[in-house]
Amino acid sequence: MTVSNISGEVLCTLNGKDYVLKPTFGALMRIELKADCSVLTLAAQALEGTLQVSHIATILKFCMTEDITEEELGEMILLEGLVNTLPCVHALMRVILEGTLKLDD
């Protein structure tokens, strides 16, 4: 998993394939609507280790630049394992909370 501080993209490997995750304002709104709680609450739960599997899938799905079904994503999470999937969620939350680095022109 790698993070680009310039673009705010997170590269996450699931089931042997790399996926680009990019949080956008629209993605954050969809995450909050589907999870029925704020992104800040989800970030706190991720840090506490109390984040639900459904919320992990929601966060990843709405930030993915590639369109996959929830069922496909769920299978990838299971195959990869939660321990190996959580660093992607943590990296996304860090980008969401801290923003991206801006370069001077």
Verbal overview:
There is one protein chain. With 105 residues, the protein is mainly alpha-helical. It has one domain (2-98). It has helices spanning 25-35, 39-48, 53-63, 70-80, 82-98, and strands at 2-3, 10-14, 17-21. Helix 2 (39-48) crosses helix 5, helix 3 (53-63) packs across helix 4 and helix 3 (53-63) packs across helix 5. The longest helix is centred in the C-terminal third of the chain and has 17 residues, at 82-98. The termini are far apart.
Report a brief summary of the structure.
This protein is mainly α. 57% of the residues lie in helices and 11% in strands.
Number of domains: 1
What's the count of strands?
3
Physical arrangement of strands within the biggest beta sheet: 1-2-3
Q: Which descriptor suits the 3D outline?
A: globular
Count of runs of 4 or more consecutive helical residues: 5
Structural class: mainly alpha
Which sequence of SSEs, written as H and E, runs from N to C?
EEEHHHHH
Q: Helix share of residues?
A: 55-70%
Low-confidence stretches: none
Content of β-strand: 5-15%
Radius of gyration: 13 Å
Largest sheet report: 3 strands, antiparallel
Terminus-to-terminus distance: 28 Å
Mean pLDDT: 88
